[in-house]
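> Could you send the Endonuclease/exonuclease/phosphatase domain-containing protein prediction when you get a chance?

Sure thing. Input:
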Amino acid sequence: MLRFVVIYRPPNSSLTNFFADFSEYYETLILKSGHLIITGDFNIHVDILSDPVVEEFKDPLQSFGLSQHVISPTHRQGHTLDLVITQIDDTLSLERLYVKDSCLSDHNAVHFFLPHDNRPLSAKPVSIQYRKYKSINYSIFTEDVKNSRLFKHDLLSTSELVDLYDEEITSIIQKHAPLVVRKINTNQKKPWFNDKYEMRAKQDERQKGDGGRHNL
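Output:
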């Protein structure tokens, strides 16, 4: 099964709300089996790596095990706004992804090919990891940060402060949004490809081998 999700974020909409909604929506998607492709106009300049917004956008992608494939400009002003996202550990592979001027819009068209196989697929369980950031009580979270060792340490070097920050914040996040590990089946038998269609496909193959003669 292939789940194809198309997203459009209006350019003037709230990024904070979008990031929260996107994370919450994806939490529901990863619990479902099958391949997943997320695409659309995100109106985020992902080509500007130094932009804090881009960093904030990439964090949940990494947390959810997602990979963004478009690296060429998709807008006339030279930025990459239109994205194609898949799961890193998915067996589905995109082929020949390229960007081409559509001549119809200020956005270019993103093209890619998907491998097509009519054979039934056997279930292949994979492990996914994610955190439910939406469930965090930020008042309690803030208090835990204030009461952490970050505010109770002696003079430390820069390197020691970085290590302390990483250790404390990781521990607090784990407390409020524990890492969830689930196993899902990325490949399942296509529900429409039953014995009837399989028999017809074999008949078609035999007829092609006989010179393409069909009884119409």
